[in-house]
Amino acid sequence: MATTSTTENKTIQATRVGLVESDKRSKTRKVVVPNSSIHPKYGKIIRKRTVLHVHDEKNESRVGDLVEVRACRPLSKTKSWELVRIVRKGAQMKFEGVQAPGKE
């Protein structure tokens, strides 16, 4: 009698690192992934960018953060990437403790 071992078929997910450009929508971030290449004939550096709509379940990323994202099943018409981790927190403006002008 032959024994069969169950092996988990783990698929390698595509991951990218990009910068959060917009966090205005709830649980959705707009992440920009820059790409530069050299033109084959003229040698000029061509800068391109890919804009990804990313699902952020906990609303933890903010504008300016460097994040890692991975491909997932389509969650909406444009959103098919999910947040893996925040690589580096960006500069955030803090307004705690700021008083209106003229008030002591």
Number of helices: 0
Order of helical and strand elements: EEEEE
Q: Ends: how far apart? A: 86 Å
What does the main sheet amount to?
5 strands, mixed, barrel
Strand content: 35-45%
Specify Rg, calculated over alpha carbons. Answer: 20 Å
CATH topology: OB fold (Dihydrolipoamide Acetyltransferase, E2P)
Quaternary organisation: single chain
Quickly name the level 1 CATH class: Mainly Beta
**Strand elements, count:** 5
Show unreliable segments: 93-98
**How many structural domains are formed by the residues?**
1
Structure overview:
The chain is mainly β. It has a single domain (15-88), classed as OB fold (Dihydrolipoamide Acetyltransferase, E2P). Helices cover 0% and strands 44% of the residues. The protein contains no helices and 5 strands. β4 (66-71) and β5 (79-88) form a beta hairpin. The radius of gyration is 20 Å and the shape is globular.
What structural keywords apply?
mainly beta, OB fold (Dihydrolipoamide Acetyltransferase, E2P), 104 residues
Secondary structure blueprint with pairings:
Blueprint lengths: L14 E8 L5 E11 L6 E11 L10 E6 L7 E10 L16
Parallel strand pairs: 3-5
Antiparallel strand pairs: 1-2, 1-4, 2-3, 4-5
Précis, in short:
The protein is an all-beta fold.
